[in-house]
Amino acid sequence: MSFKDHFSGHAASYAAYRPGYPPRLFEILAGLPGERRQAWDSGTGNGQAAVALAGHFERVVATDPSADQLSHALPHPRVEYSTGRAEDSGMADGSVDLATAAQAFHWYDFDRYFAEVRRVLAPGGVVAVWTYNLARVDPEVDRWTDRLAREIVGPWWPPERRWVDEEYQTIPFPFDEIEIAPLHHEERWDLDRLTRYLRTWSSFQRYQKETGHDPLEEIREDLTAAWGDPAVVRTVVWPIFIRAGRAEP
Length: 249
Description:
By secondary structure, the chain is an alpha/beta fold. 33% of the residues lie in helices and 23% in strands.
């Protein structure tokens, strides 16, 4: 079964310019399962979530179907990387205390992933999937990044993007749900760093490939005016939208 590969072609920039996740997220998740022996991070990409989980679990297995993504993964002595789909992990039955998917679940075959999660979760195990949507800076900057995302490259988003736009509130999630208080992630970036991140969007890459044009040129002047001095470092924020739960006994 093929996978929806929107990032292998720019795996290096994805690894370099995507934001991370708040440490508090992993503290919360690590406190949910009964044990902290093994975590499984599917769709791991360059391993951001896997390495963070390794601070709380004895062992982390991090899988991704893209060898290009894994070639840029962050090394860690307690993280084992392997090529594989989330729907067919190859892990032993009942061996996983925490199964995670960070900014990846919306690309999955939901039913097959849920079946795999139920198979590999240990008693007391937990599954958690999360996403973030568009970066927030201030209303003026957001106006232009929103125009880029929704008007200029909007038609080039894959259809699965709808789950992110709906903040994972509409995804099927057939588990005994665990409520988690709202979280957000912050980075301190200059304008160049922000625009490099915008270029990692799947829609940006598809637009550029199919049209031969740089979509940033349509907003560059207005975005720069909204930002001010491009060298000034500003706070960039992403709300994190999480669904977590336990398989029913």
